[in-house]
Amino acid sequence: MLKAAALAAREVPEFNGFWTDDHFAAGEDVHLGMAVASYPAKDSSPPRCTTPTPWHFPG
Questions:
Q1: Domains identified in the chain, total number
Q2: Nearest C-alpha neighbor of 38 from the set 52, 49, 51, 53
Q3: Positive or negative: CA dihedral 41, 44, 46, 47
Q4: Average pLDDT for 43-56
Q5: Domain containing 19: what range?
Q6: What is the structure's pLDDT at 42?
Q7: pTM of the predicted model as reported, rounded to 2 decimal places
Q8: How many whole angstroms separate alpha carbon 28 and alpha carbon 23?
Q9: What's the angle, vertex CA 45, arms to CA 41 and CA 46, rounded to 5?
Q10: CA distance 4 to 27
Q11: Which SUPFAM superfamilies does the UniProt entry name for this protein (predicted)?
């Protein structure tokens, strides 16, 4: 599913980019990040925060 999203963003530049102060700028490469939350078993320590893993698909 993530690879499909990244490939679609490459094909449709309007979905791949970022906002500057006053306009949308299309990105040259596709950068896709994913974060996963897991919940500990009962009576264990609280969940830890982890850094999302970026996937980079050069144009």
A1: 1
A2: 49
A3: negative
A4: 60
A5: 2-41+50-57
A6: 67
A7: 0.48
A8: 16
A9: 90
A10: 17
A11: CoA-dependent acyltransferases (SSF52777)
- Which tokens is 26 given? 């299309």
**pLDDT on residue 57:** 57
Helices (H), 1-59: 2-11
> Hey, which bits of the chain come out as E strands?
17-19, 24-26, 30-34, 53-57
Tell me the per-residue pLDDT of 4-24, one tens digit each, with 9 for 90 and over.
988 888 888 788 888 888 998
Instruction: Name residue 57's beta-bridge partners.
Output: 30
d(CA 17, CA 9): 9
What's the CA gap between 11 and 24, in Å, rounded? 17
Residue with tokens 């974060």: 35
- The C-alpha atoms of residue 48 and residue 37 are separated, in whole angstroms, by 9
Q: Mean pLDDT, the chain, as a whole number?
A: 76
